[in-house]
Amino acid sequence: FDGVEIHGAHGYLIDQFLKNGINDRSDEYGGSLENRCRFLSQIIQAIASAIGPDQVAVRISPSIDHLDAMDSDPIGLGQFVVTEINRLERVMGGRLAYLHVTQPRYTASSKTGSAHKREKQEEHLLGMLREGYSGTMISSGGFTRENGMSAVADGETDLVSYGRLFISNPDLPYRFAVNASLNKYIRATFYTQDPVVGYTDYPFLHQGGGQDERGTKSDTESENRVGSFGWVLSKL
C-alpha cells in the first residue's frame, strides 16, 4: 500500500474518544478537548514515526452523530483537531498526506426541533477547517456534481471524494469528464458476501450503462447526475 488513512470518524473507536457526547472518561483521555484528542494524536505520531508523516492521513467527522457519537460543539471540536494536526506536523517535521473530513448526509439530530439552527451553524464548517488546516484537505459526504465543484471553487476543500457512486460506476472519472449520468447503486448489495453481484457487475458507460452529454440513453440511466471530474484530476 502507499499509505495509511487513520479512521477517526463515523462513530468508531477514535471518534468515540473525540466526542463529548459519548466519551465519559475521567482520566487523561476524557473531559477537555486536549484530553479527548490525545488518543488520536498518539496514534498519528506512532504511525508517522514508523512510515513517515507523508504516508499518513486522518479522517474525521466532527458534525456526524453516527452510532450516537455526537459532540456538543462540532465546530469547536473540528477546529481543535485541525490545530492539533498542524502542531503535530511541525513537531514531526513534515505534513500528513491529507486531512479527510466527512460532512453528514443526515444526522440523528435532524429529527429534533433545534436541528435547523445547528445545521445553519455548521453550514460553513468545511470552509473553516480548510482555512485552518495548513495541508491538503479532502471532503466527502453525499456530494453531487454541483455542490462538489462549488465546494472546491469556493475554497471549502481542495478535493472531493465519492464512495457509493464509485461502487456502481467503475468508470466514474470518465463519466464525470463527459458529464454522463450514472448507474444507480443498489444499497442492499453493499454489505454482502457475493464477490460479483453489486460489486463487479455494474456496466461501464460504453457497455450501455448511462447517458453521455450527447444524450445517448440506456436502460440503466440514473436519476442522479454528476459532472466533470477534471477539476479533481487537475489538483493531483
Automatic annotation (TrEMBL):
Domain NADH:flavin oxidoreductase/NADH oxidase N-terminal: 1-179
InterPro entries: Aldolase_TIM (IPR013785), OxRdtase_FMN_N (IPR001155), Oye-like (IPR045247)
Any one of the GO BP annotations: jasmonic acid biosynthetic process
Cofactors (names): FMN
GO molecular function: 12-oxophytodienoate reductase activity; FMN binding
Keywords linked to the UniProt accession: Flavoprotein, FMN, NADP
Pfam families linked: Oxidored_FMN
Family label: Belongs to the NADH:flavin oxidoreductase/NADH oxidase family.
Protein's recorded name: NADH:flavin oxidoreductase/NADH oxidase N-terminal domain-containing protein
Organism whose genome encodes this protein: Nymphaea colorata
